[in-house]
Write a structure and sequence with these properties.
Blueprint: E1 3-6, E2 9-20, H1 25-28, E3 29-30, H2 34-39, H3 41-44, E4 49-50, E5 55-66, E6 71-74, H4 97-103, E7 113-115, E8 128-131, E9 134-137, E10 143-147, H5 148-154, H6 166-175, H7 177-181, E11 185-188, E12 192-193, E13 198-202, E14 211-215, E15 222-226, H8 233-236, E16 241-242, H9 248-265, E17 268-271, E18 280-285, E19 288-293
Parallel strand pairs: 6-7, 7-10, 10-11, 15-17
Antiparallel strand pairs: 1-2, 2-5, 3-16, 4-5, 5-6, 8-9, 12-13, 13-14, 14-15, 18-19
The structure holds zinc ion.
Amino acid sequence: MRHWRIGNAVVTRVEEQLGHGSFPPDQYFTGFERDVLERNLAWLVPDHYVPEADALITSVHSWLIRTTHHTILVDACAGNHKDRHWWPRFHDLDTPWLDRLARAGAVPEEIDIVLCTHLHADHIGWNTRLRDGRWVPTFPNARYLFSRTEHDHWDPRQHPDDTLDPHRRIAYGDSVLPVVEAGQAQLVDGSHAIDDELLIEPSPGHTPGHVLLKLLHAEGGAVFCGDVLHHPLQIHAPHWNSQFCADQEQARDTRRRVLEHCAAKRALLLPTHFGAPHVVAVDEVAGGFAARFIEPHG
Ligand SMILES: [Zn+2]
């Protein structure tokens, strides 16, 4: 399996899906400007945009990070057999994601930390799997780290009067609640150091309690940024949000802050939905930023 070496860590992508997104760019992005897309076609085609279909390419993947001390999974895709009848792309999937995790070098028992950047359905699915008709944690030896703000936002028990979003209840119920009930959830507040290499930081906007994970290293390290950016075009147009960003202004502020950090510190950016090769460096250029893709190191 191809991987990236970042500092002392080995990072592998575990794919669930790669293909056309569910929406054309002018619906997907708020503030979309077609001339920005046209100017960048040379590098967007074919891994990030398909002109004939006016379709964005999006990936859904997890990141497996192996450090000296930990084996960590960042984001857990949509999962298998989940009832997501309101969203065909994620409904009742049956993908070989666990086999791909094994090929990446880890069986579920070896994962000791799971971090969901936020609790949207395409980031929590593999938290659990179906065993004898019950949802049980996929990773029996892991601590699952959730932002407390994020958890409390999605936990229906904290919103007893909230009858507006039944989908929220379903996804939380099959992919978060079983982890909490198994005693494997740890809610974190603000910035949270896992150890001296790994730092969780708030990155709100896309959702209220969205967090990112920094892999710290003198030579730049990396930022696993979840859905702070959805598509590499947003490096060139950081003012574009996705239609799914809850707080549009905060999402833009957080995105700029993350891009500035990556450019200044030479930290690689590893989001959850970028097309191949899925990892970028951020260069500061006149008037903004540019994406520079980083091929796997082996
Ligand atoms: Zn997402």
